[in-house]
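Table S2 (continued). Query chain:
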Amino acid sequence: MISHEYPPLSIGGIGTHTSELVQGLGELGTRVTVVSAPTQAYLAGDHQEVFRQVLPDAPHPRDMSQQVLDTGLLAAAEDAIAKHGLPDLVHVQDSKGVSAALKLKDELGIPLVSTVHSTETLRRLGRLEDQHYAQEWSRRVMIEASDLVICVSEYLYKFITYVFGVESRKLRVIPNGIDPRAPMRYQAKRLAEEAVSRTEGRTVLLYAGRLAPEKGVSALLEALYILVNERGRRDLWLYLAGEGNMRESIAARIDDLGLKDNVYLAGNQSREALATQYRSSDLIVIPSLYDSFPITALEAMAAAKPVLAAAVGGIPELIRHRETGFLSYAITPRDWANSIEDTLSRPGLMRECAQRGRGAILSKYNHMTMARETSSVYREALQLPEVRSSHEWKKSVI
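Corresponding output:
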């Protein structure tokens, strides 16, 4: 399985998605070899089925050039094949690994399955620059060359069908899923000392994700300002977990708004630390301008915590308003302030939605459901008449 990000070197949701899928497929008896971006040294968290090229000067995957990434992925794939032999098929997680995936498909004569997590047009809200056009082109090439394509939401499926003009016969929808046991494995821990004194006796809001324009963090800060300064909600405390190209501007805006006592800019967090933070929070807020099927919502629901999310993209497929969570049609910061205040005014309903949300993870949006449905796609790909591979499914994926 080719993924440019994989824990512990993750950027967004693709790394978590891939690790959850690999775990689920492993529990089904499928051997998955993960090929990921180059790294400066072997990573303690990697096991024998994760291959990365070691480059002493390798940057973090989010800062890596496409050329370095392509070369590193191919080198790691060659090492994996030398150790394990030829796989049954190649599965690539979105377009950054497409060059390596296409080369393996062509040289080995095996089918290619791809997963589309988003598109630049959706992610950038239609405002594309040169580098975004290049990545969108790569995604189109990947979709065209793939034998079958997995979309993580119905919304994304419809977009690719109607806007990209892809025939629906090669598209399949498999929602993201996570291991519902994971958030409950971690013992409740105290927050970092710097944060603890600020949260005692307060209502804690949590945002976990990239600090990028499409994630809506700026509007969330403005909404918090309205709640704290205009409506007297000085008990509110916002924990921002994540990194991104907006970190400096967000830190400056926190200062400008006088919210230092109400916001903690935590940076990237390990999954264990984040699971602990979910359980220490009162409400998880997802103010995205667009999102396909956010991992953050799944993790919060698995931890039996209430979620307030923007009703955009694939989010309404996951969250049913006032049943498994809360949806907001907010456009302005004041709208978001109203949505947050209204949600917090219903503590009983918040608890009920949190429990029903965890039930949705247990019954549908879990890593085993995702793995079983993905395994079915693998079998289907190997049975397509145009697939050149003639060997039987031996449960081996790269």
